[in-house]
Amino acid sequence: MSLARRSLMEAAAARFGWRRAYGHTTQVDALLTEQTETAYAKAADHAALATAKNTDALSVQPGVLDARGRILADVLYLEGVLTGARTNGLPPELIERLEDAVDHGHELTVLLADTVRTTAAVHTAGH
């Protein structure tokens, strides 16, 4: 495939959030490393903004609600992926990993919901 064509496909993939599948663990590891490095590169900016912005319990609430909503949507998407894997008889070890990810995702959404409730409770107690 030509470089121009591949670049166009990569640009479209980035624009629409498409992901390609990688058949080799070295490619997967490289992608995971890139994702991790990108996230950590942005972490300092997030921390600085959060420190300046989150000065009381209620100011924390919108960010936690936003994160919970995005995580819940992703977990529900992963449940669909899991259903597809089960329906199509994919390997048990893959199904087990997906089950673990879905379970942990739901646990995280519960913890975040508890955090949101705490922001309101702390705010009410302080007034």
Please explain how this structure is put together.
The protein is extended, with a radius of gyration of 19 Å. α3 runs antiparallel to α4. With 127 residues, it is mostly helical. The protein has helices spanning 3-16, 25-53, 57-87, 92-126.
The largest pleated sheet is described as: none
Low-pLDDT runs of 5+ residues are none
Shape: extended
Strand content: under 5%
End-to-end C-alpha gap: 65 Å
In round numbers, the mean pLDDT is 88
Structural class: mainly alpha
Count of helices? 4
- Bin the helical content: over 70%
Q: What's the SSE pattern?
A: HHHH
**Radius of gyration over alpha carbons?**
19 Å
Number of strands: 0
SSE topology:
Layout: H1 3-16, H2 25-53, H3 57-87, H4 92-126
Helix pairs in contact: 3-4
Offer a concise description of the structure.
This protein is an all-alpha fold and 127 residues long. The protein contains 4 helices and no strands.
List keywords for this structure.
127 residues, 0% strand
